[in-house]
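Q: Given only this backbone (487 positions), what sequence would you predict?
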């Protein structure tokens, strides 16, 4: 009896899963596999909290797949290098003729997939990759001259123009596989699946859902009650005004198409007029796509390179004490410290604050953005290479469509604008609990005026001075580039 293999990666869902649907449609039995590569996770700086969510999700997925008569094997391997041989042996063991999965656009993943394809093809096993991570597949949204967009707004316009009927029609869960087709060894895996083992360090992720119903309900609740006000509220970190869906989108527990379908169902007018909260939210989904298209077209980004070559000459400073103060939320800038506490304690950080702390690390502490990029991956529940790299390069002014280097966030004015009453800061920094209203952003000035002392660090750098220094470093790098080009 021949069978199909479904290889799960960043697509941990049964609904709107093209690879799964294709495997089931073949009419054969289906075996599912997840290759858990702890060494690779280490190299990719996977956060222990995200590892925990993956393992919890796999347990849930196994139950969902069992209802479709599909057993799920979770194989713990070291690195990606071991994957091709392992998959081949699995195929040979179960008479598998076709392997299905979704494209992943990161460089190491692409190299791994090419090796798998090569090895399987030698045994006449077909390797079928489907595009399921994006609504519009990379390579389809191009400028009139056939190039990739470097700027978001025209990308968004072209992306919207490229939508088809299919973009709003996510696939449901496929029908169950006919039990009569299943071989004895597969039946045994279905009835007595081996324990899921994971040697990678894990941190409790129970605050985040692992089952479909809760995730879909969260999408529906957001669309029904928060999407309309998203434009006005999304930048206020003290409000629960964003969807909180990023961990699920990052691991493919939810697809971008499912999000799009829900939005079009309830907010079609806003989207057609390109106004209002729902359209702003859709734009965030398009940012996610933009960064995926970007890494697919520029594999060098996966090697740690800056998008703008000249910014490689910026003389970043390496000061361990400053880096550690940032990591531990001890900078003396309350908005930065509160945000870093939010990250440490929950694994998630509000988008506005990601921009503020990323700007602070690169433009106030003058530390290489790659240090921050890594720290985020090591701690985020929604760690996602493309979005994280894109966000960091934007904030550090080294990326495509980046914040120009001469526009530098002032952390205190950002705080006063987006946390005007200091609510967010007091919620995460108990040492500032007694500092009233907006004074929470300048606690030492308030304490001095009132003859009080507070147990909170003084600012570790002076924003005004560091701003000048940052401008100097960027201008130096620009001049060096000019000199190189004219030499
Ligand atoms: C320095 C920096 C690092 C970041 N790192 C990550 C990361 O590792 N993983 C990640 O998913 N997002 C990252 N982002 C983007 C963004 O901050 C998060 O996606 C967002 O805060 C998640 O919260 P939410 O689900 O409530 O978002 P919502 O506001 O509800 O947005 C809906 C979805 O759109 C996508 N999205 C929103 N904003 C962005 C954006 N700016 N870029 C790309 N996609 C976006 C996310 O998938 C998000 O879940 C980063 C941003 C910055 C500035």
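A: Predicted residues:
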């Amino acid at each position: 009896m021949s069978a199909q293999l479904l290889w799960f990666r960043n697509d941990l869902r049964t609904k709107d899963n093209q690879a799964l649907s294709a495997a089931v449609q073949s009419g054969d039995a289906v075996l599912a596999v997840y290759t858990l590569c702890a060494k690779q996770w280490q190299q990719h700086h996977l956060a222990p909290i995200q590892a925990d969510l993956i393992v919890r999700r796999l347990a849930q997925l196994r139950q969902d797949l069992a209802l479709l008569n599909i057993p799920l094997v979770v194989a713990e391997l070291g690195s990606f290098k071991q994957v091709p041989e392992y998959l081949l042996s699995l195929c040979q063991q179960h008479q598998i003729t076709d392997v299905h999965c979704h494209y992943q656009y990161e460089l190491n993943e692409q190299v791994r997939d090419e090796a798998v394809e090569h090895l399987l093809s030698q045994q006449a096993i077909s390797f079928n990759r489907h595009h399921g991570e994006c609504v519009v597949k990379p390579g389809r949204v191009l400028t009139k001259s056939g190039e990739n967009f470097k700027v978001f707004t025209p990308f968004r316009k072209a992306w919207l123009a490229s939508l088809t009927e299919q973009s709003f029609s996510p696939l449901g869960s496929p029908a169950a596989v006919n039990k009569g087709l299943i071989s004895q060894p597969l039946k045994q895996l279905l009835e007595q699946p081996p324990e899921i083992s994971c040697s990678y360090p894990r941190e409790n992720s129970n605050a985040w859902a692992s089952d479909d119903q809760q995730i879909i309900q969260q999408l529906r609740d957001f669309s029904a009650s928060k999407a309309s006000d998203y434009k006005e509220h999304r930048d206020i970190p003290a409000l629960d005004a964003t969807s909180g869906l990023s961990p699920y989108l990052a691991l493919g527990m939810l697809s971008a198409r499912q999000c799009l379908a829900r939005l079009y169902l309830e907010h079609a007018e806003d989207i057609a007029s390109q106004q209002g909260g729902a359209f702003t939210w859709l734009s965030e989904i398009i940012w996610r796509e933009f960064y995926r298209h970007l890494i697919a077209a520029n594999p060098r980004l996966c090697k740690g390179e800056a998008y703008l070559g000249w910014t490689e000459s910026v003389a970043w400073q390496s000061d361990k004490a400053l880096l550690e103060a940032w990591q531990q939320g001890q900078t003396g800038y309350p908005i930065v410290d509160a945000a870093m506490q939010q990250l440490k304690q929950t694994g998630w950080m509000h988008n506005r604050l990601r921009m503020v702390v990323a700007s602070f690390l690169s433009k106030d502490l003058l530390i290489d953005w790659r240090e921050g990029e890594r720290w985020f991956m090591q701690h985020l529940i929604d760690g996602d290479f493309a979005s994280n790299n894109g966000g960091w390069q934007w904030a550090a002014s080294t990326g495509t469509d980046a914040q120009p280097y001469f526009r530098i966030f002032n952390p205190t004015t950002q705080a006063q604008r987006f946390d005007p009453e200091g609510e967010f800061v007091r919620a995460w920094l108990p040492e500032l609990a007694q500092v009233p209203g907006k004074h929470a952003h300048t606690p030492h000035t308030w304490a001095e005026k009132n003859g009080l002392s507070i147990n909170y660090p003084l600012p570790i750098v002076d924003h005004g001075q560091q701003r000048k220094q940052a401008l100097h470093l960027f201008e130096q790098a620009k001049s060096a580039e000019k000199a190189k080009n004219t030499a």
